[in-house]
Write a structure and sequence with these properties.
249 residues, alpha+beta, hypothetical protein yedk fold, eight-stranded mixed beta sheet, disordered C terminus
Amino acid sequence: MCGRYASTKDPALLAAEFDAVDGTGDEAPGADYNIAPTKHVMAVVERKPPQEESDTAEGEVERSIRVMRWGLVPHWAKDLSGAAKMINARAESVLEKPAYKQSAMKRRCILPADGWYEWQPGEGRKQPYFITLGDGASLAMAGIWSVWWKDDVPTVTCAVLTTDAIGAMTEVHHRMPLLLPQDRWSAWLDPTSLDPSELLAPDPSIVDALELRPVSMAVNSVKNNNPSLMERVSLNEEEKPAPTLFELS
């Protein structure tokens, strides 16, 4: 699954990396080292831009960086209260579930990430890991999006697609985000393609390149949000109990 992730690049860097234009305006959320459900995130989409913003010819689409709220809310929902429960959508059933089907067919996106956090079960506690490429490149997490309206004001929401874990990822969790290699970006984002079924399987080459980095338990709290959350720690150090008052004196 994907319940927390980090995205620290500014829109200009993401636009260059994903061959897109920056469409965030003044809405970009800024660097976030501990993204939690319902926060605003940046996403890559391909849509026809508003006519007043571009001279793009009729029918032509533009790839851009946009801001969305994490936690998909179908357009027919009564309110936003269910968003936190819909941060992930299973790739195996996304084309069947009523809440996700139309988005999977017509409104797909990429959610760029420095990496995501996962918690490995253990005796008495769960050890957090930061899963990343480790070379500065963004992970391209497959996503879907929707628009929910209230009083003529739109709220654009999104979800990360997940799939069965493969390779080394099975050592941490049984689910993982669906990661898209660069040669699948265009096909995934193409709004004219209504059947993404051939793109819903994980790519082993990306998983083989991932670094599973043990990190501090500080990431457990959403109040903590700084670069140290992504730094590798020694598991031996993490396992040491906190010093007592006598040891500190």
